[in-house]
Amino acid sequence: MSDNLVEIKGLHFAYNSRPVLKGIDLTARRGQVVAIMGNSGCGKTTLFRLISGTVRPTSGLLSVDGLDVGALDQRGLYQLRRRMGMLFQFGALFTDMSVFDNVAFQLREHTDLPEEMIRDLVLAKLNAVGLRGAHDLMPSELSGGMARRVALARAVALDPMLILYDEPFAGLDPISLGVIGNLIRRLTDTLGLTSIVVTHDIQESLRMVDYVYFISEGMVEAHGTPAEIKASGLPFVHQFVHGEEDGPVPFHYPADPYAADLGLSYA
Amino acid sequence: MGVATRFFLLTMLHSGICLRRPQLVIKEVYSAGVLSLIIIIVSGLFVGMVLGLQGYDTLQTYGSEEAVGVLVALSLVRELGPVVAALLFASRAGSAITAEIGLMKATEQIAAMEMMAVDPIARVVAPRFWGAAISMPLLAALFSAMGIFGGYLVAVSVIGVDEGAFWSQMQSAVDLKDDILNGVIKSLVFGAAVTVVALFEGYDAPPTAEGVSRATTRTVVTSSLAILGLDFVLTAFMFRGL
């Protein structure tokens, strides 16, 4: 068994003829928390869609646990996804089900476990995210942070080997943000998972991840451990880590000279 | 049209779950059927009462006011029951189905289901199709029954038409096969049409507030036109033998 759970080599992807990913190389080792960062529209979410098999690569290799994801048929993809979890940006909880039923959903769909055992498992998962007492609530009764914790409990319900987190810190207050960050780290370590986190939150990520990839315009711009990233002198990484408004990622969208747009003849 | 047909065929192919887990269908019968009861009962009652008034007014011109029961019953069982109940069903349950599935898509619940290796066509679409398709003929039957009761209230209790004539003429004129069965077939077809339109529009809706809003409107407009068009075709075949 390879030490690398996710391996991506020379990955290209285009929507129609518009290239989105232009030769990505990325590896996630088993037991690691890997962060994927980059400015909006750089291709991070597309990369997630490729890893989960929602879309197929134009060229290049993308393997998860040794399986070529791009070559899997629907049945193969579904079998792979049973061993993967995904935390959506705003939780994507089923709004017509209680917290308990949301977490029990996969257990009921994919196993023949008796209801008593499902109850024990669901309460254990909810206890791990601190929400055992909320099992009777409906999603509409939860705060944003709580919804994300329930979604996390649901994502680990079948003890997956890999969890993908799509911007798990977006819109959270500092306390909830810290709670989610700690939970991602703790669940990865205690359950022996591998986690890939797409995020913009540089400070929280550098605190809790093992490895970071920076993507810009469909290519890996930089990668390294949090310590290496902090010490990096690369202009793109420096701009991103320090939140500078101008740099390799320009403030202005490409345009004609301002004076020309204003019709000033001396321009 | 081709995409919608493929969607319908996929729904049929993935309907096995409805037999294995009938509780999923029962839940949808509640959402589409039970929650539509009030509008169906009240509308049926008023339509029957209006038919009683209008029918009596016209029939007394020819001295046939005791045939008002026949007029009310045939109008409802053959046409108004299936058609008006289906139009109400499209407005109440069809729009709700579209909005629900469209919002599930917009809030990534459908995507989450796919990521959990659960096919949304089987888990979300098929139970809703069968739940609504089962509910529709029952609602149409209830609409007709309430309409006949409304006609009875007006014609017999208020106007004073002979009760025996009202019921006995209705009994002898309404045929089980030609009238009631054909009405049931119509309501089955309308129910299936409304539900497929509602499900497809919801599933195909752009995942935005505007997209869901437009899809919901399209469901009501498209399914209403489909009901009226199908009614003409079915009536031509059933009652004119074309």
Structure description:
The complex is a heterodimer of chains A (267) and B (242). By secondary structure, chain A is of the alpha/beta class. Chain A is built from 10 helices and 10 strands. In chain A, helix 4 crosses helix 5 and helix 5 packs parallel to helix 6. The longest helix of chain A is centred in the C-terminal third of the chain and has 18 residues. With 242 residues, chain B is mainly alpha-helical. Chain B has one domain. Helix content of chain B is 86%, strand content 0%. In chain B, helix 5 packs parallel to helix 9. The model of chain B has no long low-confidence stretch (mean pLDDT 91). At the A-B interface, helix 2, strand 6 and helix 3 of A face helix 6 of B. Chain A: This is ABC transporter ATP-binding protein. Chain A: It holds the Pfam family ABC_tran. Chain A: It comes from Parasulfuritortus cantonensis.
What features would you highlight for this structure?
heterodimer; A: 267 residues; alpha/beta; Rossmann fold; six-stranded mixed sheet; four-stranded antiparallel sheet; 36% helix; B: 242 residues; mainly alpha
Given the helix and strand composition of chain A, which structural class is it? alpha/beta
Assembly state:
heterodimer
Assign an overall shape of chain A: globular
Q: What would you give as the CATH superfamily of one domain in chain A?
A: P-loop containing nucleotide triphosphate hydrolases
Pfam family, one (chain A): ABC_tran
InterPro entries (chain A): AAA+_ATPase, ABC_transporter-like_ATP-bd, ABC_transporter-like_CS, P-loop_NTPase
Keywords (chain A): ATP-binding, Cell membrane, Membrane, Nucleotide-binding, Transport
GO molecular function (chain A): ATP binding; ATP hydrolysis activity
